[in-house]
Amino acid sequence: MVAPVKFSGTAEAIAEKVHNFASDTFKIMLTNTAPIVGNSVKADLTEIAAGNGYTAGGVAITVVSSSQTGGVYTLMSNASLIIATPTGGPIGPYRYAVMYNDTQTSPAKPLVQWWDYGSSVTANVGEGSIKIDFDPAGTPGRVLSLT
Predict the structure, then answer these.
(1) Helix H segments across the chain?
(2) What is the top-level taxon of the source organism (predicted)?
(3) Largest CA distance in the chain
């Protein structure tokens, strides 16, 4: 998976205590609409339709650890995150996986970063799960790094 792209408001949101990576719930949703760095909240994007195994709002990230070493903060999760498994029909098309804070209400559901699959994808029944490999070589995997 390619490196994530942070939204322009992410650093400010962290500095102003909008995101609490120790206690807030962060989710990853799918969209086929290209995010732009100036997007700030989930409502700025069009999520793909729920159904056939994909749940509206996406799936929560399980944080397994976080650390700060040499001025770099790292948030770790399981090596892979399964977003959905197609059942009863296809999921998509989608191209982007977007991380957002599902806990915050002001602003509502602020965006953090996104990953680009490179082209629009439709996941069909029998093709396996839609997932993000944070670290294909093992576990845990780095979800977010801040310097």
Answers:
(1) 10-15
(2) Bacteria
(3) 48
The structure tokens listed for 25 are: 């719930």
Q: What is the pLDDT along the chain (147 residues), one digit of tens a residue?
A: 678 999 999 999 999 999 998 899 999 999 999 999 999 999 999 999 999 999 999 999 988 888 899 999 888 888 788 999 999 999 999 999 999 999 999 999 999 999 999 999 999 999 999 998 887 666 688 888 888
Cα dihedral 129, 131, 137, 141 sign: negative
Name residue 61's amino acid: I
Domain regions of the chain by residue span: 5-135
d(CA 113, CA 60): 14
Q: DSSP string covering 78-133, please?
A: -SEEEEE---SS-EEEEEEEEEEESS-BTTBSBEEEEEEEEEEEEEPTTS--EEEE
Distance CA 41, CA 45 (A): 8
d(CA 139, CA 131): 15
Neighbours of 4 (CB within 10 A): 19
The bridge status of strand 130-133 relative to strand 59-60 is unpaired
